[in-house]
Specification:
mainly beta; 5-stranded mixed sheet; globular
Length: 450
């Protein structure tokens, strides 16, 4: 019976059959939302608005999504396991094309994978993976959902979760057995442990926004112990540039340069708390970005870069922020043709296979962060992608760049053909590297605003 039986869409449903139409069963979606399968037939039953107009379509797999509450859904096949040319579409009634909610053929930078996002109310929905123009073969699907704050949630669900990026957790604060998405102790604005400090990154007991306990450790970390542990005449978070948060237990940050404007650059390796989150599933895909291009996206707050206030930022496909240039051939700084620029990894990069660029603004007003994450290949047909993330901080106007994966599987690995640094577009610049294999996994660069 409803709601336990997935074949029942409502209590008055006349059948418990787990089918879209008679004889067409749903494909089971694993508990983690990750499915690897294939389509082998060209016998088509359904089509989406983005998968019409071809000589033929292929057979389809249909997945039943049952949402207990309002949820932002992402379903994507632009993953390494996708070989066939896919289209992905979503309906509220399985056999009624008029109820289509979203449809996509080819996510940005992909010729085979597709991706859709949708904000949905509680209820049953139907996700289709289709083959384009008779395409068959293997595909990889990932479905995920972020449950709205304050909405009911299932603490055991691996697919539909609260937003850890904003510090929301599935909890039962009243002890009544009713779970909802609520701010965690380290993001609720309250001093829960009575140390006169509240939330991440200020409270030394908080290691992340979704940390559920503010209690300070028995031995305070270096970035909250009142000592100059690294001998740089700077003490604790946020004064010490080596501290990503008060819970960081390593003040050390090696200075690599300063510039005329007053920026200070320092480098850390594998800090205990990384300042860059993985937004590969939660961030918004930067649309309109192709080979050697850039797109302007909203920051969500005002950010000062070399004395100029920005509320939007240009995101470049070749690993740059702010720059209006789409030049792919990197050079050492300063490079006046690029204008004001943050070069996270300026190189000849290209969208292919699982490549994408995403952005996300999070945090409380006054201390928000804006992040861009490049998961992208090198133009030289690299077998792998790099993962580089840049974070702009509201208030301090500091910049962090994290190098998570720096190997393409080519001679361009580790920044061997890339530039990393910042410049004002004229003569002032702060460069970390230029065509040197020093951008290695775990590296974090801090550009500290004066």
């Amino acid at each position: 019976d409803f709601p336990a039986d997935p074949g029942c869409f409502f209590a008055a449903d006349a059948t418990e059959e787990n089918e879209c139409i008679p004889g067409f069963a749903f494909t089971d979606l694993p508990p983690d939302g990750h499915y690897v399968g294939s389509i082998t037939s060209t016998l088509s039953t359904f089509s989406g608005t983005c998968s019409t107009g071809f000589t033929s379509t292929s057979a389809e797999n249909v997945f039943l999504l049952q949402l207990p509450s309002a949820t932002d859904i992402t379903a994507a096949t632009n993953l390494p396991g996708t070989v066939m040319d896919t289209a992905v579409y979503l309906r509220s009634t399985c056999d009624d094309p008029a109820t289509e909610i979203a449809c996509n053929d080819n996510a940005p930078g992909s010729f085979t994978g597709s991706s859709i996002t949708a904000s949905l109310a509680a209820g049953s929905y139907f996700l289709f993976v289709d083959g384009m123009n008779g395409s068959t073969g293997a595909y990889e699907l990932q479905v995920s959902g972020v449950v709205a704050n304050g909405a009911p949630c299932d603490p055991a669900s691996l697919i539909y979760t609260c937003s850890t990026v904003t510090g929301s957790v599935c909890s039962d604060p009243g002890g009544t057995g009713t779970f909802t998405c609520n701010p965690a102790a380290c993001s609720d604005g309250a001093d829960n442990d009575g140390d006169l400090l509240a939330d991440y990154p200020t409270d030394p007991g908080c290691t992340a926004l979704d940390d559920t306990d503010e209690t300070d450790p028995a031995v305070l970390p270096q970035c909250a112990n009142g000592l100059d542990d690294d001998g740089d005449a700077l003490i604790d978070y946020p004064a010490d540039t080596g501290c990503s948060s008060a819970s960081d237990d390593d003040e050390a940050c090696t200075l690599f340069g300063t510039d005329a404007f007053g920026y200070t650059g320092c480098v850390e390796m594998s800090p205990a708390v990384t300042p860059c989150a993985d937004i590969s599933t939660t961030g918004t895909i930067v649309t309109g970005v192709g080979d050697d291009s850039m797109t302007s996206v909203p920051v969500g707050f005002t950010f000062s870069f070399f004395g100029t206030a920005y509320s939007t930022v240009n995101v470049g496909s070749n690993g740059k922020l702010f720059s209006t240039s789409t030049a792919y051939f990197n050079g050492c700084l300063p490079d006046t043709f690029q204008g004001p620029s943050l070069m996270a990894w300026w190189d000849d990069l290209i969208f292919a296979g699982p490549s994408n660029v995403r952005y996300l603004t999070t945090g409380a007003v006054g201390s928000r962060t804006f992040e861009v994450q490049w998961v992208i290949e090198h133009y030289s047909s690299s077998p792998g992608t790099i993962d580089v993330r840049a974070v702009l901080h509201e208030g301090s106007n500091d910049i962090d760049v994290c190098y998570v994966d720096t190997t393409f599987g080519t001679t361009d690995d580790n920044g061997n053909s890339a530039t990393a640094g910042i410049q004002d577009g004229a003569s002032d610049m702060l460069q970390y590297s230029c065509n040197m294999p020093v951008l290695v996994p775990g590296l974090v660069l801090h550009y500290v605003h004066p």
